[in-house]
Amino acid sequence: MQWITLFQKELLENWRNYKWIWVPLAIVLIASMDPITSYYLPQIMEAVGGMPEGASFELPDFQPSDVVMMSISQISSLGVLIIVLMSMGTIAGERKSGVSELILVKPVSYNNYITAKWAGLLVLVWASLFLGMLSSWYYVNILFGVLSFISILKVVFFYGLWLSLVATVSIFYNTLFKTPGLVAFLSIATIMLSSLITKIFGQRFEWSPNNISIYIKEMLVTGSVSADLLATALITIGIIAVLLIGSIFTYKTKELAN
Amino acid sequence: MTLLTVENLSKSYDGKPAVKQVSFQFQPQKCVALIGPNGAGKTTILRTLSGLLKPTSGIVTFNNMNANDDLRKHIGYLPQYPVFYPWMTGSEFLVYVGKLAHLSKEEAMARSEELLSLVGLTEAKNRRIGKYSGGMKQRLGIAQAIIHRPRLLMLDEPVSSLDPIGRREVLTLMEELKKEMTILFSTHILSDADEVSDELLLLHQGKIVEKGSMDELRKKYQTAKIELSFQDESATYQSKINSLPSVVKCHMERHTLHVAANDIAAARKEILMAASADNWPLTSFTINRTSLEDMFMKVVGN
Amino acid sequence: MQELFNEINWAVIAPFLVIQAILLLVALIDLFRIDKTNGPKWMWIFIIVIVNIIGPILYFIFGRRQ
């Protein structure tokens, strides 16, 4: 019951501060940008000029799966940035402003408080990702060729796990620090560091969550879910669980006022 | 019966002690004032009792409470500067915290209405809290603190930031509330404490230096003094007054003679008799009690 | 340039423009209703209107006071 109350408050807050409008729209724009610009690339090149006389720009032969992956790669950079920035104050900001002093002297369980915040954030992230990929799918179908709806759903499912991890990292830092800017910085730094480590020690971290888009692309090409993808997904879920438990633990041991 | 027992409570920040070995007990339905200058540790004590801070050492126990019961169910707390969600309305906020305190939706709504009218916010209940004035926020703060009918209500400097009208409103409200619950509030304004509290805890540098009811403390520390002024040079009479048997001390301050005595009634009688016998040109004769501030200085001085 | 304009398939571009317009509108409405922003309001009007797509998003992330 208390969890539902906290969760509903998150939804209402994100509605009142327009996150439910601008975050999905921003993700939709980010996801549609590449399909459109890739399609119009020849015209754009021509219009911009700089092509030698008589030479024409040939559109590389983009497969639908290539274009979907372009959308994913845009979400991986700009989308991740948006998720981190819009979640940087979700707990930290409440502590900084002092409103948590009123909330947490009520018999509120820290488990409920943290997980409701987390779930409220995740619902927004998943809905935005779904809408973003839906629009990407729409453009792929009218501009590049047919791609089944089921494969887009699979992409959303597996890639959503990665974005959930990003959101959970942000929640984790939110429980550690009360400066939203620091939370955003550390979240981005952590994501970049893990990507760097994955790249350098590629062999040893085959199933690193950072690799999930590689396996998603494989899935789009082959049409089947590989064991690597499943393993990576499970590991991602595992890390999310550990971070979430870590967040609750940190918050429990923390002093909530100065 | 004791409601709450605090034993040897200490709290340090980074090794610096803010509260040292504080012990006290509360009886139900009492209003207790925690008095002390800024930095004496008042807020730290309230925050520790509310669970926002963890005590460095010491035990806090509620009467009739199971070991695994959540202490927060029984306390309501209003910080000195309460901060709300500015995007919520007053009514939404009360229902929200009511539900967090395990009231059902219906209970929370009914109780919110009741409290909004108690604190005089019925008209503003559907306005966003971001648009509330300071006094309105303070009253909403009291409402949110008692929504779950706590046994102990803690208020941190509830009136010090208010204008005279707001202060009067809040003090009247506290007068009402203490019929139903124990109130512990901090203040550095002694007259506020005098007005509503049954008991005082005087705090200085993290220690309780004195406690008791207002009357007890008055008896213990308050001495009366007589102030005299004369038409001609007051100094002329100083030695005469000093020679009266019940006068302890007589000194002059800006044309006025200040007379201290242990038995003020006797001193009054002697001075007035001398005055009428010698026909002193008295222009004023006043008996002043030492102010609360003087009293506090005296306690702290010890 | 004219050619490019004609060649554009409006069914492709229209949703894009509509979304941009919604973002712009919601950001401006919020800006007028909100009490205070981080930094002066006129600066945010400028950013929201002039900076394509990113303007409204910048406003929502950094302009609104938490």
Automatic annotation (TrEMBL), chain A:
The keyword Ribosomal protein does not apply. The chain crosses the membrane at residues 20-41, 67-86, 118-140, 146-173, 182-201, 229-251. Keywords: Membrane, Transmembrane, Transmembrane helix. The keyword Glycoprotein does not apply. One of its GO terms (molecular function) is ABC-type transporter activity. PANTHER family: ABC TRANSPORTER PERMEASE. This is ABC transporter permease. It comes from Virgibacillus oceani.
TrEMBL record, chain B:
Belongs to the ABC transporter superfamily. Transmembrane segments: none annotated. InterPro entries: AAA+_ATPase, ABC_transporter-like_ATP-bd, ABC_transporter-like_CS, DrrA1/2-like_C, P-loop_NTPase. Keywords: ATP-binding, Nucleotide-binding, Transport. The lineage of its organism: Bacteria, Bacillati, Bacillota, Bacilli, Bacillales. Coiled coil: none annotated. CDD domains: ABC_DR_subfamily_A (cd03230). PANTHER family: ABC TRANSPORTER RELATED, ABC TRANSPORTER, ATP-BINDING PROTEIN. This is ABC transporter ATP-binding protein YxlF. Residues 4-230 form the ABC transporter domain. Gene3D superfamilies: P-loop containing nucleotide triphosphate hydrolases. It holds the Pfam family ABC_tran. GO terms for molecular function: ATP binding; ATP hydrolysis activity. PROSITE patterns: ABC_TRANSPORTER_1, ABC_TRANSPORTER_2. It comes from Virgibacillus oceani.
Automatic annotation (TrEMBL), chain C:
It comes from Virgibacillus oceani. Its main location: membrane. The chain crosses the membrane at residues 12-32, 44-62. InterPro entries: CLS_N. One of its GO terms (cellular component) is plasma membrane. The keyword Transferase does not apply. It is a multi-pass membrane protein. It holds the Pfam family PLDc_N. This is Negative regulatory protein YxlE. Residues 22-64 form the Cardiolipin synthase N-terminal domain. Keywords: Cell membrane, Membrane, Transmembrane, Transmembrane helix. It is found in: Cell membrane.
